[in-house]
Amino acid sequence: MSLKKYRFDGTKKLDLKKMPTDSRKDGADKEEILEKTKRNQEEIAELQERLYADGREGLIILLQAMDAAGKDSTVKHVLSGINPQGIDVYSFKSPSGEELAHDFLWRIHKCVPARGKISLFNRSQYEDVLVVRVHDINRSYHMADRVTGQPDDEFFEKRYRHIRHFEEYLYDNSYRIVKIFLNVSKEEQKKRFLERIDKPEKNWKFSSGDLDERDLWDKYQKAYEDAVNATATKEAPWYVLPADQKWYTRYLVSEAVLDALRKIDPQYPEMPADEKEKLAACRERLMSE
Questions:
Q1: Cα 203 vs. chain centroid, distance in angstroms?
Q2: CATH fold of 3-287, please?
Q3: pLDDT class for 227, splitting at 50, 70, 90?
Q4: What is the mean pLDDT of residues 197-206?
Q5: CA dihedral 257, 261, 262, 267 (to 10 degrees)
Q6: Quick one: pLDDT band at residue 1, thresholds 50, 70, 90?
Q7: What 8-state DSSP symbol labels residue 22?
Q8: Taking a C-beta distance cutoff of 8 angstroms, is the pair 83, 51 a contact?
Q9: Which H or E element spans position 175?
Q10: Smallest Cα–Cα separation from 149: which of 138, 162, 160, 133?
């Protein structure tokens, strides 16, 4: 159950058709995995407290997926033990008029956390090389002809480069990025869509537009594969994780987050000697009351 097989850092190419969407190839035992996930959550919470106190590095966790892959539930369960003061969650939906009037990374950069904190991106800058590419939205941008008149391949190659440079820039400014693609199968997506239709308490999660996007499944798979292969680096790796079994997905996500925090290795600040002396004096004062 090594995370390495799901990690892409530019040293190998992703072929989505060959990637598992469930735990069968890993021979995972559900009860064992649930226990490991719990332990991971506890260690993540402890390291996050130290990250917040240390304040030298920031962490961005980025989630991308097809509809119904479980992004929201993953956020809810894996990061449930984290101190809310130390994390902010951002959902990047269709850009507003103001956002469209700026460069495509403008709305992303505004959500980069202060060092010592975590930002979780539910969708991200990658929407601009996924949805935009699948729907040819770039051709309708209100931009100069030298931009919109480019061949699509050239336009998106430049965007991949911009994203790589942006992530390199963040790394060089003391940030780490964990990029996660939840790899759900088309069969499991159908099952989850039917559940949203059949269960009244889940109707609000379903939109008829979801089926229009499902019709473009192959185009999205190609767009994800291209995006991962063009932007996976050692400093900002991708994790392509099986998403058909939520209990296993949550475990692997917790492993990826924990790995990043362990590499940061945050420490509580060491107090100067004079401040330690003040602590001793304050303790004596309290004990003498």
A1: 26
A2: Rossmann fold (3.40.50)
A3: very high
A4: 94
A5: -160
A6: low
A7: S
A8: no
A9: strand 175-183
A10: 138
